[in-house]
Amino acid sequence: MTVSTPARFERDVDRANRLGSLWMVSGHRTMGRRKVAVMGSAVIASCTCGLEKEFMIGGGMMDFTTVCHFPCLCESCNDIVDANLLSKEPRCSECNSPAVIPYDDPKLSSGNGVHEVAFWNTKADLGRKLVLTDADYKCPKCRQMTLCFSDAHICWD
After folding, report:
1. How far apart (Å, rounded) are the C-alpha atoms in residues 45 and 60?
2. Would you say 84 and 67 are in contact if contact means Cβ atoms under 8 Å apart?
3. 131 is in which domain, residue-wise?
4. Number of structural domains the chain divides into
5. What is the band of 45 on the pLDDT scale with cuts at 50, 70, 90?
6. I need a surface site. Which of 57, 88, 96, 133 has the fewest CB within 10 A?
7. Is the sign of the CA dihedral 48, 53, 59, 61 positive or negative?
């Protein structure tokens, strides 16, 4: 679940605390003094050339401090792949090459995105928030800036 405003976030966390349930918000570790659980999400990468793949974003409740799944362009196998960006040397999940470029890299995007499709708050770990927007991205199959990411409406932990 993605929360659109801080006020809504506070309201929902307060409600969850009153009910004694865990509250899960994609990409958030804490809000003020309250501890919240972390939940990953998923996106679909699709292009007009026919390429379509689903990717996990972030980490789960048990591994979010060491795992951050994120779609990357592998320059070795020339494909969109999953890589753990919190590992010491992120590698391609297909060919194990370290030649991966996360899709939040400006050189893979047209930069015309307005809305966030998915994010993972990694400022403390990577110095930046990982964000995929509704921009056009470079497709490894047709090599055009026609790849787009959309929310797969899946949350996982």
Report:
1. 21
2. yes
3. 40-156
4. 1
5. very high
6. 88
7. positive
